[in-house]
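Sharing in case it's useful to others searching the archive later.

Someone asked me privately for the predicted structure of N-acetylgalactosamine kinase, so I'm posting the question and my answer publicly. Question first, with the sequence:
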Amino acid sequence: MPVQIEKLIKNERSEKITNVFQSIYKKKPDFFVRVPGRVNLIGEHIDYCGYGVCPMALDQDIFLAVGTAGEGKKLRLHNVDRKFEDFECELDDNIEISLENGPPKWYQYFLCGIKGILETLPKDQLQNLPSICVVVSGTVPQSAGLSSSSALVSAAALAAAHSLKLQLPKEELANLCARCERYIGTQGGGMDQAIAFLAKEGCAKYIEFEPLRSTEVILPTGAVFVIAHSLTNLNKAATGDFNCRVVECRLAAQIIAHKNSLDWTKIKRLGDLQKLLGLNLDEMLALTGECLKTTPYTKQDIIQELNTTSSLVDTVSLTPNTRDIEKFKLYQRALHVFNEAKRVKQFYETCKNAAGGEDTLLTLGTLMSQSHESLRDLYECSHPQLDKLVEISKSFTLGTRLTGAGWGGCTVSLVAPENVQKFIDSIKENFFKPLGVTEGFEFIVFTTTPKSGACIYVHNE
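And my answer, the predicted structure tokens:
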């Protein structure tokens, strides 16, 4: 099914972006694109291992005004937030995304989506491209674990596809965006892009991969989710932390595969390994204990375990920004992945079979709390500010966990309706006030309900 096209309902934001577009490009936008951010309720750091996750789309989004011109073959970008510089480049299949020291530029995420679409075009169509002019407006907090970067990549791809009259199914767009975001250097797994395109208002989604498929998750009555920002940020593409976890999981899968007489060079993910072995998650947990040592592995340890060469490990297992890492914790990472995959299934089944009431909410909250403990202790991707938020949240929530990659960003809490305001007041007083924050709370602590996925809007004329 292609992305939905709707008539634009005018509001202050759409009027502002239209006026900015007209002042720069001297014409009205042809259409608009909206792609939401997301919060992952449970299932962290397991999508790139091949396991299902449970996110929902947010009200916060990336919103684009887009127009085409018949000449020039250029991409022109402008952001309504003037801290982001304008950008212009030739529109062709030779778009380069060269990463230097420090975090990527905002427009390089946009280029990922454009490049992904252009690579699907036949050569003859590349000769007749129009210019694409874009104004960007974003309300997803940046580097907060709410998928601002993936939303921007996905919005760019959707804008390019619609400008070039490509009608791609949502699943194909999601898969394409998951692949092309890797041009920025992040080895993600596809959850962010999938929920961006497949989200449905009123429900979360249980998303599984290869093939990409989604199932509605109707959240039980009385489940309110509150997002709180730790006021610490991590740009995944700016450090090797995220990619280190990806390769640790890959190396764990490869060593277990080798010890079970499989060709380790063909194994990339723990989920693929499980399918090949034909075992359930509990059996995989037992196998992890048998095959992996609990102490860290050096690169030389890994070479010896796999009976291979440093060169082959560099090529098959590692990424350019993980080749200099000296220690890898494989047992702990695999343990988290298999247990987190179990928690996602329990979360989904609990919602599916929910009779409502306090017991259901307690079960979901407990799973979320267990998830955070695992991310903190086994995956080591939390942060002192996140842990402090989780601790403060215990008085008024049923469960709290970090959401997104971690190392900063946001927590998501399950809260009973009668405790929502008490909880928000508590973290304002006990977390934000000691940090000197006295205003702007609507951007750093807010309730959320499941919103719809990507949409194209056209003028209502």
